[in-house]
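Bench notes, afternoon.
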Amino acid sequence: MKNLFALLFSVLLASTLTSQEEFNGLELNLGNIYRVSDAETRSISPENFTGEPGKAGMATEGTGSEPARELGQGWKVSPSVKIGPGETFTMAEVNDQGVIQHMWMTPTGNWRHTIMRIYWDGEEEPSVEVPVGDFFGMGWGEYAPLNSQPITVNPGSAFNSFWPMPFRKKFKITMENMSEQEMYLYYQIDYALTNVPEDAAYFHAQFRRSNPTEGAIHTLVDGIKGKGHYVGTYMAWQVNNRGWWGEGEIKFYMDGDKKFPTIAGTGTEDYFLGSYNFENKKTNEYERYSTPYAGLHQIIRPDGLYNSQQRFGLYRWHIQDPIRFQKDLKITIQDLGWRSGHRYLQQKSDISSVVYWYQLEPHASFPDLPSKDNLEVN
């Protein structure tokens, strides 16, 4: 059996596999897309809450009832759902075996106060617990184009995930509206029912925030226990000083590392596959970029009034270079800039992050999410 990385990421890597029997022929790319499979395609949306075959577009009531009043059933009667203040809505709950292949959604309301959770195989604690905006690289609550392999955000604030998410018995996805206003959610979850290999691990994602950082350190994750591999980082970074802010090293402590890690980066912009302050040398300004595996896709500049701080959105996907761990994993990044005399400055930035990884269950309990006030983007 091929290693777990090849199984889960062949769609993203666009490489032909040596055996097309594994995962029941789901490893499609332009080199083998003509091959058929016994996997069964299903899709859940407000027009088909269960994903059952032949059951889509049957609604007679829904958020589209009024504009469809003259046309009736089958004419976009239920394109979205309304989630009231403080309510949690179950987007999907499926009892079967297979893999989620794609999720699309466009939530209204406050993206930081809208919490997405995913549960695998009947677990009581979620394996994904992240504000929906941050999961899709929009932690500042403002749209910015993001064009990468596992995550894309397209005009009109269309959120897309292509992370493969296998399940063996069941999956459940919920959305909690923590705000005081109702919100609308348009969404579609595309998945395949098929046999899952024994070594297929489960997708996880966790949110953390340091506002401000203490000791110039932001902990992205701590306490991952088990066997798996780390596949991605998103950061929403607000700089609270005027100078260059990205000298800090990211550090990966794995499999018993104590004082010193196994992996230490050379600087923030280097980890996100940039260099030299993300600066365009002709314009002397930060330059946005959004590539398959890394990007500085969002730059929010001070406007001289209410938007008084510079804010950045950055991502780094470890698809070609997953970070494998056998027992445990902890990740930190230094919040480091410059002071006078060519000396490093320990900063006090506002940093939020989402980390993405695959591991065999069970997973360690997540820390509690920050309170509503401490989640808020000010």
